[in-house]
Design a protein that fits this description.
Number of helices: 7
Strand content: under 5%
CATH class of the largest domain: Mainly Alpha
Radius of gyration: 18 Å
CATH superfamily of the largest domain: lambda repressor-like DNA-binding domains
Largest sheet: none
Distance between the termini: 37 Å
Number of strands: 0
CATH topology of the largest domain: 434 Repressor (Amino-terminal Domain)
CATH architecture of the largest domain: Orthogonal Bundle
Helix content: over 70%
């Protein structure tokens, strides 16, 4: 992972933590208190000015009542062109059975 990728990931992580925290009505100060870290440290993570440790990510996930994998799920922030490219790549390499299953699933979604 290059520096630009790491920087982008840290920004997405900070955004994700801030959104989850806000949705639960928790302030940075309260999150810091419950996770046993300083409010300044939480602020730096949300603004991508520092890299969080695994221990801190785990503590934040627990406080926000999400699994660690959900804390690191940035799919909703993907650019539409990035999503289209992923679908294009996916459909080019999958077999017929999988493509038909994907199409069947697609048709069950509300439009």
């Amino acid at each position: 992972m290059g520096f630009a990728d790491m920087e982008k990931t840290l920004k997405l992580l900070g955004k994700r933590i801030a959104e989850l925290r806000s949705k639960r009505g928790i302030t940075q100060e309260r999150l810091a208190e419950l996770a046993d870290y300083s409010p300044n440290h939480i602020s730096k993570i949300e603004s991508a000015r520092t890299k969080p440790s695994f221990d801190l990510l785990y503590a934040i996930a627990k406080v926000l009542d999400v699994e660690l994998k959900d804390l690191l799920n940035f799919d909703e922030y993907k650019d539409i062109n990035e999503i289209k490219e992923e679908f294009k790549t996916l459909t080019e390499r999958e077999n017929t059975k999988t493509l038909k299953l994907m199409y069947k699933f697609y048709n069950t979604l509300e439009k």
